[in-house]
Amino acid sequence: MMEILGQLTDGIWLALLPVNLMLIIIGVTLGLFIGAMPGLGSVNGVAILLPITFLVPPASAIIFLAAIYYGAMYGGAISSITLGIPGASTAVATTFDGRPLALQGKARLALVTAALASFIGGTVANLLFTGFAPLLASVALSFGPPEIFALMLLAFATFVGLGGDDIPKTIFSICIGLVLAAVGFDEISGEPRLIFGDISGFMHGINFLVLAIGVYGIGEMLWTIDSTRGKITSTETKMTVKGTIEDAKYGMKHSWKGTTIGSFLGFFVGILPAAGATPGSLMAYGVAKLTSKNPEKFGKGHPEGVAAPEAANNSASTGSMLPMLTLGIPGSPTTAILLGGMVIWGLTPGPRLFIDQPEFVWGLIGSFYVSNFFALVVNLSFIPLFIAMLRMPFTILASMIFVLSVVGGYAATRDMHDVWLMLGFGFAAYILRKLDFPLAPAVLAIVLGPIAEPTLRQSLLLSSGDPAIFFNRPIAGPITVVAIILILLPLFKFFWFKYRGVKEVA
Amino acid sequence: MRLAEIITTCVLALFSIYLMWKSTELEIGYVSDEGPGGGAWPFWLSAIMLICTGFIIKNSITRKSVPSQASEPLLDSYGKKMLLTVGGGILGFVALIDIISMYGAMFVFLFYYLKILGQHTWKLSLTISIVTPIVFFFFFEALMRITLPKGMPFLEPLFNFLNTIIY
Amino acid sequence: MSLRKKIAAATVGLVALSSAGIANAWEPTKPIDFVIMAGAGGGADQIARFIQSVAEKGKMTPRPLIPNNKGGGSGAEALIALNTSKDPDHTILVTLNSFFTTPLRQPNLGIDIGTFTPVAMMGVDPFVLWVHKDRGINTFEDWQSKVKEADGEWVMGGTGKGQEDSLVTTWLEQNYGMKIKYIPYKGGGAVAKDLAGQQIMSSVNNPSEAKGFYQNGDVVPLVSFSDERLPLVADVPTVKELGKDFSYYNQRAVVGAPGMSDEAAAYYQNLFKEIYDSEEWQGYMASESLSPLWMDAAEQKTYWQTQVDRHKELLAKMAK
Fold first, then answer.
1. C128-132 and C219-224: which strand pairing?
2. Do C33 and B147 touch (CB under 8 A)?
3. N-term to C-term CA, chain C
4. What are the φ and ψ backbone dihedral angles of C292, each rounded to 5 degrees?
5. Strands C249-256, C117-126: parallel, antiparallel or unpaired by DSSP?
6. In chain C, pLDDT over 70 holds for what percent of residues?
7. What is the total count of domains within chain A?
8. Which of A143, A204, A416, A469 would you mutate first to test chain C, the one with the most C CBs within 10 A?
9. Which of A101, A98, A74 is nearest to A88 (CA)?
10. Sign (positive/negative) of CA torsion C220, C226, C232, C235?
């Protein structure tokens, strides 16, 4: 342990060298803007900068990449809050409460809370990483298909209450998301599936961002213009240091629980290679709501609803480094590219990395600590700029949102087909929104569907078609039972009250 | 809005049926020893969607749902105008991408939105609609190395020249 | 270089270009669409991005290679993208064996790989049979008897029916008279991870995918499906040594879009020869256990034909 701390301190000092510090600040700033751009995420930042890192020594290169990674994680929340479009799949849940806060003129509160929660999430993850990495790697290994499916079931269960009051519409929304997630290719039989009209653009499936940007960037914007008659007047307060500090205090006071839940839950979901940061942040939101004393405040602009997913996605993104480093398995496209980078630097990720290359591992983690801190500082200092953006006349802001949506819809897959699809989703979402269909469940379902379906079927293949596999395994069993109880809870409550009501009358 | 709700839901019901039919291209049943086939997941979920549409229509007819209690139409005159001008604008934007490139289309859309819909001054409208594509070009092509659509071949010399600047 | 300098240089370049006319050899004038026949994160993707970074590091191209993942439909999407490319001179593809199998399995796509332009064969990735160390199996013979004992309950993971590893798995079943339960996964990395976590019993993985777990002693190699013993696992016999004439590799090759001009094809052939000979690529092949196999354009065309015939046979056997 002392050895680890020594190496970690070395790593932190290395990151604090003037040259490296400069790289961190540039990296974090760049990452922040990349992350804030809808359709772009840390994966783009890292992919582009990987070749550049050959020009600097590997140690500095790693620090630079870590800085971009952290910057992008913070940046995702910015477009979720200010524009209402999730900047990345990990920031979907942030829109649920972040956008309402911004519309109420509390964008500053939302942004500050998101930044602080991200910082705490990142720090918790770094500490867990430092203390327990090898142990956690074996936990990740014990999660096979049945465990992952049970976890997805749990993720859905935490979201049972998310939809509106109209139950058939909510179920419809979940199902259509799950069906759209099935488009493209059936992994198990290896056959193409639901290729509408034999259009090759459907072969890569429907990217989550295409639906999310369509629903939030186009549909929600059209609805906003319509319902406010285009006369949105921003009541956004000015940016003052004192106000920011007050917001920070208020935000943290009302969301410490969500932040804690997000930090830990996010990390544990994040270290599972098949799951990753997006389910982690969604589950954190669901659990924060489920355990809150005021669940009815969620979705209407509750700081806790911003803090929980933001703490979780930051924590989970750090966590997703763990399977990459310890198992050599990339948990996300971003880590896949980093993995490629490590191979280029002559390192072999895998169980031996911590033993053979300790200075690399702890240097990387050291730069995580430093990057996380500077990401917070840079993010906070840019908040006035993002707030100022909200004060722009609405027609300017709206046109920018539409441009960002179209470009983001293209950049996600670089296929014009997906831009048209996004537009279609956008118009459909506008009409359905007016008819009181909840759309968030569909967006969640398209994220979780591609994980849930293959793991369900892999599990059943393993058990020769026997569903008992979800109950009789030591990890999957308890998770499945909890998930089922959570799903049935609203029904129990319903009948309980009915029964009691009857008794009281009698 | 009740009629609109019923009609929309009927369209969704038809869509569900289409999805069910499309899913039958793969095995939709339970293969013994293997679990559900490749079409089962979308097929049965679409079936649930179809059932839901039934309930939605029922709620609408009995005026239990929120939209069915509202008296205003789905799209009033403002809504129709908005959909035509704003929605049509975006549609035009996307349609133009393949012809005059992402950057050209962006310029046209921004200028249309700011000058015609936003009634901003010439100076402001032109500045924003010229500067934005340029910023996007440098951000995406040079910095992010993401190529956005370049439109029809007649623009090729222009972009080839721009490429010599950024690379 | 500052922007102003760049503009100045570009202007000079433009003037020079117009005066020099078309005497110069062909060079790309816009970013090269570097299509990858697999999703982000897989083995093929890692190789493609490695190649891109080698080109970038050596400043080998005047315009960048832009990786473009099109993994949909077992690579069908990538093949269609190349077939319909509006600019064949700036479109190249990193392939694996689905370059041969996907057009065979989905004839309705109307893809004739004979029309594609050969560029470079960068190497081939061998396959090895792995088992978890706790199974207590140390030889291929041991493995055979254990699988037969399990009688259809032996679980192997792979990347999907019709994919490279599944062809090898089917071959094992048919040539050693055994029944195996095959679970498809998203990628080879996920298979290796679930083997190390004992979710599955054995796997056919590329050495690069299982290397980390092998070096840590979690998984044991039993037999390799290569022509010669692999340096990484030098003690492990090849299936040929054990008496069956069989070997199977995944190709890591680059091809150009149909209709690419001869000048452009020559340019890319030279470019990838340079990358192939680079210290980085040679080092990568050694560390990731790829077998070097350079081929020029004519050799590749012949190789394609033999591979198409071979895969036709393997797929036909699999359908049985």
1. antiparallel
2. yes
3. 62
4. -65, 140
5. antiparallel
6. 92
7. 1
8. A204
9. A74
10. positive
Work out the mean pLDDT of chain C and round it to a whole number.
88
| Nearest residue, CB atoms, C62 vs list B141, B156, B167 | B167
Structural domain boundaries enclosing A251: 2-505
% of chain C at pLDDT higher than 90: 66
Amino acid identity of A290? L
Tokens 């910023």 found at: B135
Please tell me which of the candidates C3, C30, C66 has its beta carbon nearest to residue B160. C30
**Whole-angstrom distance, CA of residue A156 vs CA of residue A479:** 12
What is the tally of helices (H) and strands (E) in chain A? 22, 2
Interface residue B25 vs chain C (CB under 8 A): no
How far apart CA C160 and CA C206 sit, in angstroms, is 15
Q: Is any Cβ of chain C less than 8 angstroms from the Cβ of B5?
A: no
Separation between Cα atoms, residue B57 and residue B45, nearest integer Å: 19
Q: How far apart are CA A478 and CA A470, in angstroms?
A: 9
- Look at B145 and C66 and tell me if their CB atoms are within 8 Å: yes
Q: How far apart are CA C9 and CA C30, in angstroms?
A: 17
Alpha carbon of B157: minimum distance to chain A alpha carbons (Å) = 22
Which of A208, A329, A421 is the best substitution to test chain C (most C C-beta atoms within 10 A)? A329
pTM comes to 0.90
Distance from CA of A449 to the nearest CA of B (A): 10
Backbone φ, ψ for residue C167 (5° rounding): -65, -40
Reference A279, options A483, A124, A492; nearest CA is A483
Contacts of B146 in chain C (CB under 8 A): 66
Which residue out of C35, C80, C91, C213 would a mutagenesis test of the A interface target, given it has the greatest number of A Cβ atoms within 10 Å? C213
Strand ordering across the sheet containing C202-205: C180-184, C154-158, C202-205, C128-132, C219-224
How many angstroms separate the CA atoms of A3 and A104, rounded? Answer: 51
DSSP one-letter code for C88 = G
In whole angstroms, what is the distance from residue C244 CA to residue A489 CA?
60
At C282 the pLDDT is 93
Task: For residue A444, give the nearest of A188, A67, A92 by alpha carbon.
Answer: A92
Q: Which chain A residues are closer than 8 Å to B45 by Cβ? A: 175, 178-179, 182
What pLDDT is attached to residue A500?
66
The tokens describing C221, both together, are: 């190699």
The number of residues making up chain B comes to 167
- Interface chains of chain B (3 or more CB pairs under 8 Å): A, C
In contact, A190 and B42? CB cutoff 8 Å: no
* Average pLDDT by stretches of 10, chain A with 506 residues: 79 86 91 88 78 72 84 90 84 90 90 95 94 86 93 84 75 94 89 89 90 92 87 65 84 90 93 81 89 87 94 91 82 75 76 83 87 94 88 88 93 91 97 92 89 94 92 94 86 69 49
How many Cβ atoms sit within 10 Å of the Cβ of residue B96? 18
Q: Parallel, antiparallel, or unpaired: how do β-strands C249-256 and C91-95 relate? A: antiparallel
Q: Work out the minimum CA distance from C303 to partner chain B, whole angstroms.
A: 34
**Greater confidence, A83 or C92?**
C92
d(CA A139, CA C197) in angstroms, rounded, equals: 9
Size of interface A-B (CB pairs under 8 A): 176
pLDDT of residue C21: 40
**Is B19 touching A (CB cutoff 8 A)?**
yes
Helix A303-319 and helix A241-253, axial crossing angle in degrees, nearest 10: 80
Q: Which residues of B touch C62 (CB under 8 A)?
A: 167
Q: How far apart are the first and last CA of chain A?
A: 67
Q: What is the ipTM of this complex?
A: 0.95
Report the alpha-carbon distance of residue A500 to residue A506 in Å, rounded.
10
Structural domains present in chain C: 3-125+249-319 (3.40.190.150), 128-224 (3.40.190.10)
- The pair of three-digit structure tokens given for residue B107, joined into one six-digit string: 């310029």
